[in-house]
Amino acid sequence: MSEKRFRERLAQLIASPSVSCTSPALDMSNRAVIDLLASWLEALGFNIEIMALEGGKANLIATLGQGTGGLVLAGHTDTVPCNPERWQQDPFELIEKNQRFYGLGATDMKGFFPVVLAALDALKLDAAKLQQPVIILATADEESSMNGARALAKAGKPKARFAVIGEPTGMRPIRMHKGIMMNAVRIQGLAGHSSNPQLGHNALETMHAVLGELLRYRQDLLQHSNPGFEVSTPTLNLGYIHGGDNPNRICGHCELHFDLRPLPGMDIEQLHQDISQRLLPLGEANNTPIQIERLIGGIEAFEQAADSELVQTAEKLTGQQSASVAFATEAPFLQQMGMQTVVMGPGSIDQAHQPNEFMALSEIKPAIHTIKSLITEFCLRC
Ligand SMILES: [Zn+2]
Question: What is the pTM of this model?
Fold first, then answer.
């Protein structure tokens, strides 16, 4: 590997801010990162497709070779926002020290792309040599709405037999994670003077019933369990509540936010229906209509079978047993398109979303080696 070239590529990616955030004030385009990757991959002979998205954002699908099989190597181009005052350096400048590369996105996950490029350089691929295509996929908005992955799933591309998402897992193959739903429950009451309960409809009292019902529902969800997860059951967390304004007024409005993390096999649409069926009648009973709103698009749980070819190959190549993680990824969207999918990349999630994010230099060479082996296995040999 040319260490100089690796470093230059990573430095350029880190120097191209691409924060994605649900707060519009912090949200940025990822286009500079997409254009850098497109130029490097085009120089390697890849066919470049840029899928434009709202807000000046884009996905990149870069393809070398042809065929219905092949391998997608996928990563997101955006980062979370950062607090520069809590960093020891400029987050947008690559600094090498203590045998580490520091910078925003160094590990989550701009660092994965130079790893892939180094593997491609080393293999000196050309389309004629490939039995099946190598596809490099770079997405937008993974850290916020997952709109990049949603757009790909909707368009039904890219298509391949296998997909590896290079999120930081210390190159351990990850074949399961939970899903995420976040909901708001809004209860519309009618305010009035507290001295006479007949003058209004108390939203807080309905909320009391809603909270009780949600905790019962949580109890019922415990019948689902999967020993492959550190927390083996689905979770439901009550995270935010606000209601009313004064002790001497009947509470006119109350709002609750909660999240639910389903296990693989639990369908998000079904869960939404279950929740509505349980909560809506409570509002009707008290003359306080309830509205349930999805705060995010929702991410399905993900599971790739332990005995699938990709998991088996990834375990063999890395010498690491597959496992689950506690964060969600774009994996369910890629899997939905028919690809066997695992999450596996250099770096540690412990460094992600933190000030002074870094990638340990020691992780880079083994990762390049594994990516090379995957390409050889799935695109050159088959
Ligand atoms: Zn990530």
Answer: 0.93
3-state secondary structure of 272: helix
Domain 181-294, architecture per CATH:
2-Layer Sandwich (3.30)
Residue 110 C-alpha to ligand 1 middle, in angstroms? 9
Tell me how far CA of residue 29 lies from CA of 69, 279, 323, in angstroms: 32, 39, 33
Sign of the C-alpha dihedral, residues 253, 257, 263, 267? positive
CA quadruple 330, 362, 114, 26: dihedral sign? positive
Give catalytic status of residue 78 as yes or no: yes
CA distance 10 to 15: 8
For each of the chain's 382 residues, which pLDDT tens digit applies?
679 999 999 999 999 999 999 889 999 999 999 999 999 999 999 999 999 999 999 999 999 999 999 999 999 999 999 999 999 999 999 999 999 999 999 999 999 999 999 999 999 988 888 999 999 999 999 999 999 999 999 999 999 999 999 999 999 999 999 999 999 999 999 999 999 999 999 999 999 999 999 999 999 999 999 999 999 999 999 999 999 999 999 999 999 999 999 999 999 999 999 999 999 999 999 999 999 999 998 999 999 999 999 999 999 999 999 999 989 999 999 999 999 999 999 999 998 999 999 999 999 999 999 999 999 999 998 6
**3-177+301-380 and 181-294 in the same fold:** no
- SS3 track for 324-347: EECCCCCHHHHHHCCCEEEECCCC
DSSP 5-42: HHHHHHHHHHTS--B--SSTTT----HHHHHHHHHHHH
Catalytic position from the list 27, 78, 121, 300 = 78
Domain boundaries, the chain: 3-177+301-380, 181-294
d(CA 116, ligand 1 centre) in Å: 16
State the distance from the centre of ligand 1 to the C-alpha of 135, rounded, in angstroms: 19
Among 121, 141, 142, 363, the one annotated catalytic: 142
CATH for 3-177+301-380?
Answer: 3.40.630.10
Distance from the alpha carbon of residue 245 to the mean position of ligand 1, in angstroms: 40
